[in-house]
Amino acid sequence: MSISVPPSAEWLETDGLGGFASGTVGLVRTRRYHALLLAATTPPAGRVVMVNGLEVWLETPDGTVALSSQRYAPDVVHPDGAARVAAFTPDPWPRWTFALPGGATLEHGLFLRSERAAIDLYWQPAAGARGTLCIRPLLSGRDYHALHHENPGFRFDAERDGDRVVWCPYPGLPAIVARSNGTYAHDPEWYRRFLYTEERDRGLDDVEDLASPGVFRCDLAAGTAVLTLAAAPDGTSPSSMAEAGDPSVSEFARRRVAEERRRASFPSRLHRAADAYVVRRGAGRTIIAGYPWFTDWGRDTFIALRGLCLATGRLDDTRQILLEWAGAVSEGMLPNRFPDDGGTPEFNAVDAALWYVVAVHEFLETARTIDARERATLEAAIDAIVAGYVRGTRHCIAVDADGLLAAGEPGVQLTWMDAKIGDWVVTPRIGKPVEVQALWLNALRIASRRTPMWDALYTRGRAAFEARFWDESRGCLHDVVDSNHERGAVDPSFRPNQILAIGGLPFPLLDRARARRIVDAVEAHLLTPMGLRSLAPDEPGYAPHYAGGVRERDSAYHQGTVWPWLMGPFAEAWVRVRGNSQGARREARVRFLAPLLAYAETHGLGHLPEVADAEPPHHAGGCPCQAWSVGEALRLSRILDDADAPRPGAREGAAPIDDR
Known about the structure:
Elements: E1 10-14, E2 20-24, E3 35-42, E4 45-60, E5 63-66, E6 70-72, E7 76-78, E8 85-89, E9 95-99, E10 105-112, E11 118-126, E12 132-143, E13 158-161, E14 164-167, E15 175-180, E16 183-195, H1 197-201, E17 207-219, E18 225-232, H2 238-241, H3 249-264, H4 269-275, E19 278-281, E20 284-287, E21 290-291, H5 298-310, H6 315-326, H7 352-367, H8 372-391, E22 398-399, E23 405-406, E24 420-421, E25 424-425, E26 432-433, H9 434-448, H10 455-469, E27 470-471, E28 476-477, E29 480-481, E30 490-491, H11 512-525, E31 527-528, E32 531-533, H12 550-556, E33 562-563, H13 567-576, H14 582-602, E34 611-612, E35 620-621, E36 625-626, H15 627-641
Antiparallel strand pairs: 1-2, 2-3, 3-4, 4-5, 4-12, 6-7, 8-9, 9-10, 10-11, 11-18, 12-17, 13-14, 14-15, 15-18, 16-17, 19-20, 21-36, 22-23, 24-25, 26-29, 27-28, 29-30, 31-32, 32-33, 34-35
């Protein structure tokens, strides 16, 4: 297969509502999440897979030519359409060029439309391509985390109205509206035992059955074949049936041009990728933590927002997101997750609210002018968070006598290192985790600018931080002090969390000499081309690879596994300890940012993954498209490129290390 990126690379199209389409460059679906029409019924949640894929072939006088491939259990790929892919490009949307017998070619492309659960697919003949294109949709109608199996309840019935075909697979789910410039023949069939190798390798159920109600046929002699698919929540009403859009070649061409212009407006592929994560929630906006299986999470939203929105100038999106979350403050905390089923929000993050304070601060410093009532709402949220933590809140979160923030209780994962297997919290970090203190002291400093009463607490906490976390023998910071709430007990594990005391936040907490030693130590023990290891290789429990079943992967999640988002704080710290010089920024771009951008171009198709293996060649793992990985790459790019502009939130200048 002659293509510019690996066949296993995954493409992603999003609709701005939380729905998406995804698959592999090599055409074979490898995940339960790979689908052409995956709609969010209550944006951005309630995701349902409607159309999983297509069987496509070309009927010619010389025989049938396959243009698709599926993998079936036990491990058989059929038919051989993938072998005909001669080229692939992700720009401006996923496009494949098929080499046909006799030297003819056919371009296939697809794109989701913004703010609509609808996808346009086309097959454009070139260089003598002729014949009848046959398209058989493969349907399910299931929760996106589940799998589908043959059953008598599936409704194959099709309602037709002109060029519209409507299927309603199950009661209570959206209808599927299909429109084509070809003809439709009803021909119900079950396709059985599709195998998803990524699910198999992750130790999960991996086989499913799909239903196909019929076949669309388009004569390529008439030109481009078009198929549009849409989810219609209102069933088969006329307004719903129009959701798919006019399939005529002229109308499709108009939509294609408009979408191409929209995508061309982004300055880079990474900027365009960032747009995928900013989606609608009600009348406002939120950020999807990652595709294909995350929705919007508190901690992820506020870490990612600074790069996805602030660094890219999307100030109105930032404003909407922060205002939406301002009303969710409860006892000083913000939810870390809103369940997909609309259940009770989960307040299990000590740091989510503190990241929110940082995000609000940087937004207000960047926006400068904002409606007075909205500013008051955001500032009131900051006050409520700081006051709530001072009073004490859930999960033993409270300010101690030294001014630092204690948190944690058995059985609860509160920091970003949040893996939990049954009742086992893999990295509990109960006590005073180092990055939580960096966030807490930044929050206090931010709040004290407007409410001076917090200044004394900041001063006390800052002094305690410098005295209690520093490990002179190793030239680094402890990961947790007062571990398990035992006064004086420390967890000295060498982890990347300490870097947030120097980089990644508006106000660094250490003098230049100590900061330089920490950065050098982190570079020596944790740095990889894909980000920072979550644990040093010489530490007990180090896991070199993120692989295996659920237990194996979750136990390695923060025990060495690399996290690309941490490259942002690290590279910023690295530049800061070198005086923020132009030369340091230039070197940081080449050494730290360029490898991530190269991955995004060749493997990520614009996106960056959640994690990677701790050891070379640092294979990507976890969620293939992660918001905070992309966000921190964009934020770092802005820092390293913009020599004269201060960071958001740093009115004093370039945020020197000893920022007293």
